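Components:
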Amino acid sequence: EAGVTQSPRYAVLQEGQAVSFWCDPISGHDTLYWYQQPRDQGPQLLVYFRDEAVIDNSQLPSDRFSAVRPKGTNSTLKIQSAKQGDTATYLCASSSDSYNNQAPLFGEGTRLSVL
Amino acid sequence: GDSVTQTEGLVTLTEGLPVMLNCTYQTIYSNPFLFWYVQHLNESPRLLLKSFTDNKRTEHQGFHATLHKSSSSFHLQKSSAQLSDSALYYCALMRGSALGRLHFGAGTQLIVIP
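Structure:
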C-alpha cells in the first residue's frame, strides 16, 4: 500500500514569494491533515479535512495560508507571501474513519526555507 | 481542552538498559485514542504504537505501552535500549469517533549511548 505522498520535498524562497505544497493521501483515507513543524519543535496542526470539508482551520494564518481538498482526495496548501517565520517542515497526514485504523500516517514532508 | 504531557525533554541511556518514557493526558472525552510516534533525524513522524483499549498492552518492534484510563497514562517502555532507538518520541492523543485533531506532547529526545 502506498503511503502519503508529498511534493516537493524541498523549497527555498525569498520573503514575499508564494509556494504551494501538494499531498496525495493514502487511498481510502477520508481525513487529511496539514501540520507545520518548525525546527526543534513538535508538529502543530494547521488545518484538517474530512473528505472535501474543512473541519478545523483555526490555526491556519488565513491572511497568507490557504488549503483546499476539492474532490476529497488530494490537497494543496499554499502560502501566498512567505515570511522567514514560515521556515519549517510541512507535513501531510491522512487517516481512516475505520474505528480500528484511525492513526494518522505522515508523509515525508516538505522542507521550506524562507530567506 | 485536550492536552498531552511528556515530562522528560531528554533521556540519555546506556545501550541495554530499559527504556521508559512518560506520557499523561487530559481530555473530557471518555474513549480517547493514544499514540506513540517516533521521529528520527530528518525524517517525518512514524507511528510506533496505538491504543484505545483500557488496560490492554500493545506492542510493536520491541516497544510496549498500556493505556491506563484511571491514571490517564500511556507510558512507552522497552526492556533493552538499542543504539538505533535514538530518536524523538511523541505521545499523541485523539478523540475517537469524532475524528478530532491529533494533540501532540512536547516530545522526548531519547539518546542511547554505547
